[in-house]
Design brief:
233 residues; 12 strands; 7 helices; alpha/beta
Amino acid sequence: MDRYRIIQKRVGYSNSTLIVNGINSILVDTGVKGHLKMFKKMFNQFGLKPADIKLIILTHTHYDHTGNLYPLVELTGAKVLVHKNEFQNLKNGFTPIPKGQGFLTGIITRVGRAVLPGFASPKAFTADLVNEGEFDLNEFGLNAKVISTPGHSEGSQSVLIDDKLISGDVFINLRNGIIFPHFANEPVLLLKTWKSLYNRGVKVIFPGHGPVMKVEKTFSAFEHWKKKLNVDF
């Protein structure tokens, strides 16, 4: 148990993360649609058959993290896990565009919600499993948990394995130095989530966008946004 590897792959402009664990392997997020061949190649590269993927975890239901969900479920037969707060979003095929945290992103949110309200939405799908707050992955052969990490979206969740976090868009890591996501429905709650993850001893982060990073890279962004949002905790 737990002789695993974590492989992060850029799929379009977001990341998908493969937890290689033999016949109990897990895929976290499915990237931007149209990249099924990339997944097939990745599975083969690490000695996996499609049927070895037993679970697909969605960190949240935005379209750039759910794009290949249908073909991957058909290919692998995997169960799909979503947070309880976004189960209906996925089932209905509608997720609201999150709030922009800057002047331009704020405009994008307002215009998008008025003109293209379904822009951020997934294709409708009924998940097999629902995370009520914390979901143990032992039944999938992994000593790890899926934990609630809200703020970017209402039902954001992350995978915690030892001191490693597969975070979805709770953290991003862009070339321009942006760590705090451009879009977050509840920025203060997101900072509280960050603080809770620091307290859990997270050391390595596999973000929803951008390369793997050490947790220390996020500290300056945490202090910046605490000051900007005028919060102290």
